[in-house]
Design brief:
Elements (H helix, E strand, L loop, with lengths): L2 H18 L4 H13 L3 H5 L6 E2 L4 E5 L2 E4 L2 E4 L2 H4 L3 E4 L7
Antiparallel strand pairs: 1-2, 2-5, 3-4
Length: 94
């Protein structure tokens, strides 16, 4: 099965779950955000409203981790202050 086929099956399953109410809408939305953005689960689960820019259709995430010597460590607060990762909107299909 190709990646496209897998995504299509998952999309169908999410749509069916949405219609029949077998999963909460928040779970379905979180799964879609994970798939469409490539974000880490903790980034989606920790998303706050002030990080959502509806007008410009952007999600902004604070960079809170960095990789050093093969291990993941918290970034010092002074470096985090202005560190943001912004996701641009996905174009509408034509």
């Amino acid at each position: 099965m190709t990646r496209g086929e897998e995504l299509e099956r998952l999309g169908t399953a999410l749509t069916e779950a949405e219609k029949d109410g077998t999963e909460p809408p928040s779970v379905i939305a979180a799964i879609r955000l994970l798939i469409l953005t490539g974000c880490r689960p903790q980034e989606i689960l920790g998303l706050r409203w002030e990080q959502v820019d509806f007008e410009r259709q952007l999600l902004c995430f604070e960079k809170s981790r960095f990789r050093s010597s093969g291990s993941c460590s918290a970034t010092p607060k002074r470096q985090r202050r202005n560190a943001m990762r912004t996701l641009r909107p996905i174009p509408e299909p034509t």
